[in-house]
Please model this.
Amino acid sequence: MDLLNAFITLSNFVLIPAIAYGSQLALGALGVTLIYGILRFSNFAHGDTMAFGTMATILITWAFQSAGISAGPLPTALLALPFGIAVCALFVLATDRGVYSFYRTQKAKPIIFVMVSLGVMFIMNGLVRFIIGPNDQRFSDGERFIISVREFKALTGLKEGLAIKTTQGLTVITAIIVVALLFYFLNRTRTGKSMRAYSDNEDLALLSGINPERVVMVTWLIVAALATIAGVLYGLDKSFKPFVYFQLLLPIFASAIVGGLGNPLGAIAGGFTIAFSEVMITYAWKKVAGYALPDALAPDGLAQLLSTDYKFAVSFVILLIVLLFKPTGLFAGKSV
Amino acid sequence: MTDTTRNLVYFGFIAALIIGTGLMTSWNLAITIVNFGLISAIMALGVNLQWGFAGLFNVGIMGFVALGGLATVLISMPPVGEAWAAGGVRVILALILGAATIVGAILAYNALPKGRMRAIGMIVILVAGFFIYRAVFDGGVQAVEAVNPANAGYLGGLGLPVLLAWPVGGLLAAGAAWIIGKTALGLRSDYLAIATLGIAEIIIAVLKNEDWLARGVKNVVGLPRPAPYEINLQNSETFVERVTNLGFDPVTASTLWVKAIYAGLFTVVLLILFILAQRALHSPWGRMMRAIRDNEVAAEAMGKDVTARHLQIFVLGSAICGIAGAMMTTLDGQLTPGTYQPLRFTFLIWVMVIVGGSGNNLGAVLGGFLIWWLWVMVEPIGLWLMQVVTSGMAEGFWLREHLLDSAAHMRLLTMGVVLLLVLRFSPRGLIPER
Model:
């Protein structure tokens, strides 16, 4: 019984939050890795692209809410999501036309692209703060829990409860659907195959008649969709704050690099690696250990390896370890 | 127009801007802008060393600046005797144990044969070391933080003269830069950017949370100053007499005088660093650096150790940022970890370097002053602009309120637009590299 209680506690505080967070990171890292594979630079504006798409979705959600449209038990934001993606895609395409395409024709060095993306990041961040302000915004509505602690206890008669938030369930389901669609697109459709060909060998792809502008445009569209979905899911699960989205850049980059930059499968693996390490290292294990271990061995303190304030340090240290020992990442990404 | 006259025009323009600010608003503001402009110019010199000379992209300037600030506290504040007695030794011991663990793991990695044994050995050393470290560390920290938490609760510093903190700040930043450079240099150029972004966030997290070190978000205030206090000047008869003879109000004169002393000190540091950077640029070493930047493969073929040179210049540039950070904290007279924001301390410096002219030290200094002035002035200008835009709207109209409230965020937008425009239309900057 005690072991079961330990497992329930573990699921409640570690496994379920980490799976939800990992899905969000994986979606973010997929965007970074796609940009890296096709356009060949690390996009520093990605966190703020997420923030921009989320902001658009939030504004549309508010409009829906005041118009009385709702999705029943699900958050209204889901209805607004396609519109948010559209707004974000338009903005991202405009930045590509106005900013990046110039450097592409010049064949500028990747580091120049990184710098330019920094400028784009500034502007996006400024716009987001300008339009919606720098503060916390909550926009989650509908049913809060799929199953709450009290219901779970009544159902099973266990001492420990398990709660699954709607947003957590939603995150995982959405992530699975999105990833399945993405991989179907990349592996089965003509456009997807031409994207992979372009990523593998640009010159050869050009020779075989692939239109680079089209590949780039489709990539930006997919990235805008991924970023908005990841941002909205994160915002629903926690809350929306522009600065937090900027800070998400570090775990997202760490995920993409740990998995191997340019490798979509690696981005997913990296996202979960980072999320699980972050949650497990900053979780206080006292309660779980109290159930799982015999009384004599139970810890006195919180049994927390690092305080939650250092969660960025976890992704950073994992990043450093990967760079030191396996710079191409777990799934052999692109060049070193 | 020759280069010299052009540069003179640029710097004359900056001088006119600052004097104009002094005439239009107040001399106090003008000299504050000069002080921060000097510090910004030093930071820009450091970044220019990394980017302009070597093409290294460092987005963790904030972290190195914050380390400089930490050095100011560690050097200049008087030690808190009780805290040392309560747990100081224990904390230091724990830190030594932690360092020993890492060194032990590295030694084991080098000594053990490749394979599973090595991995297991390292993990055992690291895990065991971590638990021993935490066991010693936690008790010590609790004891230290319990000592008079309202105005101490930390170990304090060494009580040495505050000017000594400036070079020490450089050393701290250099140490951090060495660790980052050792791992991230020699890989793809983007990796350094990501790694520095990370270290900056972590340094700030440490400053905010390790209360025993520098009181965390409770801030350390009242740092010793290299300049006299205004109130002492106002009480000094000779000073009051002298300024009244010159026709100044003693209160205004004392604040201006103190700021002028800082400005003098900062100018000396800027001049020394500028001359050193200039000498470095025009030495064989500087030419080698630029050769590496322009073509790494060719330089490597000529027998240059690219990674080692990159590490060298990365550490040097970060050290300069650390010195500037220590100077800034000295000027503020307090360490407030909550105020370190990447926008202000990392990206702003980048805009300075790019606008001024990367690869040119004079350009970095120019960019430092120009962009700092813009940074200070954008907010009032933005507010004024918003008032003009909204003047036609009715009082209390939501859009009007919103626009007026958002004027503060104009800075981000302006800096982003400036950066993109310069990168696009004048990528070599105002004073291009020769």
Observations:
- Chain B touches chain A at residues 55, 57, 59, 130, 134, 138, 183-184, 187-191, 193-195, 197-199, 201-202, 205, 208-209, 342-343, 347, 350, 354, 405-406, 409-417, 419-420, 423-424 (CB under 8 Å).
- The mean pLDDT of chain B is 88.
- Residues 379 and 409 of chain B are 8 Å apart (CA to CA).
